[in-house]
Amino acid sequence: MTINQYAKNHPRVLDGALVALLLLAISGPAALNSNLPGTDNLGWWSAIPLAVAGSLALLWRRRHPRAVVVVAALSAAVAGGIGFLVTPVLLGPVMVALYELAVQVPGRTTRRYYLGATTSIAAAGLYGGLGGYPWPLQLLDPVLFLLLPVALAESTRLRHDHLAATRTRAEYAERTRETEARHRVAEERIRFARELHDVVAHHLALANAQAGTAAYLARTRPDQVERILSDLTGTTSAALRELKATVGLLRQPGEDSSPTEPTPGLGQLAELTAGFTSAGLGVEVTVEGAARPLSPGVDLTAFRIVQEALTNVTKHTSAPTASVRLSYGDDRLTITVTNPMSGSPLGEGFGLVGMRERAQSAGGRFEAGPRPEGAFTVTTELPIRP
Q1: DSSP string, 3-51
Q2: Residue 22 and residue 15: Cα distance in Å, rounded?
Q3: How far apart are CA 25 and CA 260, in angstroms?
Q4: Contact (CB, 8 A) for 333 and 340
Q5: Between these two residues, 53 and 339, which has the higher pLDDT value?
Q6: β-strand partners of 136
Q7: Predicted pLDDT of residue 335
Q8: Do 335 and 302 meet the contact criterion of CB atoms below 8 Å apart?
Q9: 18 Cβ contact list (under 8 Å, min separation 6)
């Protein structure tokens, strides 16, 4: 157990030792001080009651710091007034009491008590030592030595405040780190959920449409079934490849099965529309303005939004056609996917929610809804450079 721990666990023992030490320290010099020239042979015992009063008062300094300062200062002032030299030892109880007051009640209150104690002790010392002691000693000792505990207490308080602020900042940083980590995990989960939704929903919807088309053609035009089934095989293979690449992102870096497939983008738009064409949805693609290279994130976002919008057309409407318009501006790419209002264009699920989240995460805007002319339009604006 350290000294600090022992002092915290046994404060009364520490206070008793402090009082005893101060009584011993004051009594010895008082005996010598009583025989100095000009003191009229003060009896050494005359300082004992004052020392006892000032020192014993320190036992209550934690609960009543103001009263203890007053008692200790009066004891020292009386001692100085009857002729004792005001020394740092005589001021010991007052210094301890002022330190406790400055720790508990810093600021204006401590300054007032310091000025009151200093003034009363210095005035009493000057009065009692007119015949024998140099006046600077009687004046400067109270001023300087009583200022010491006040300054020390202020320094201690500032250090404690600094340590408390440091602990608070550390705790806040730890909480912030944990919150940020949870937030990033949630964002990653949402991102992977969007990817899996887009991959699975698109390919399954396309495969379902192709299978339905093949079943219909098997009865009416069997010569075209083989081509549709070949396209269906390509759709399911593409679904497996994209699903493997997406799940592979969950692996740790450096694992042998990390994905090597390129990230989808508008460069694969022709393959995407060809798949929908084989499922019976005619897609017309129009490009306005000069095509410009996109950042990988924006390119993937644009591709996924077109993919999900066309998938919604296949799943929720019976429209035979849809149009995709890519309009390149100075710093924005506007994507518009339009289909005739047929069936339920909004559908149910997370398609529109996912498209809106993708657009916003890339710094763009997203709108979807019916138009007065009888069409359902999905419009997305994306920054060409994030």
Answers
A1: HHHHHHH-HHHHHHHHHHHHHHHHHHHHHHHTTSTTS----GGGHHHHH
A2: 11
A3: 84
A4: no
A5: 339
A6: none
A7: 93
A8: yes
A9: 58, 96
pLDDT greater than 70 at residue 275: yes
Please identify which residue in the block is written with the tokens 């997370």.
Answer: 350
pLDDT recorded at residue 13: 67
**Higher per-residue confidence, 150 vs 126:** 150
Q: What is the pLDDT of residues 313-368, one digit of tens each?
A: 877 777 788 899 999 988 899 999 998 765 444 544 567 887 888 888 888 899 98
75-96 tens-digit pLDDT: 888 877 777 777 777 788 888 8
The token duo for 23 is 């009584």
| Structural domains of the chain in order of their starting residue, each with its CATH number | 3-171 (no CATH), 264-386 (3.30.565.10)
- Any bridge partners for residue 286, and if so which? 325
Task: Provide the pLDDT for residue 173.
Answer: 80
Task: Indicate the residue type of 115.
Answer: L
The Cα–Cα gap between 147 and 121 comes to 13
* Cβ neighbours of residue 287 closer than 8 Å, sequence gap 6 or more: 325, 326, 328
**Structure token digits, residue 164:** 């408390």
Q: Which two tokens stand for residue 323?
A: 């149009």
Element holding 343 (H helix, E strand): none
Cβ contacts of residue 266 below 8 Å, gap of 6+?
294, 299, 302, 303, 306, 326
Residue indicated by tokens 């694992």? 255
Distance CA 305, CA 198 (A): 9
Q: What is the pLDDT of residue 347?
A: 47
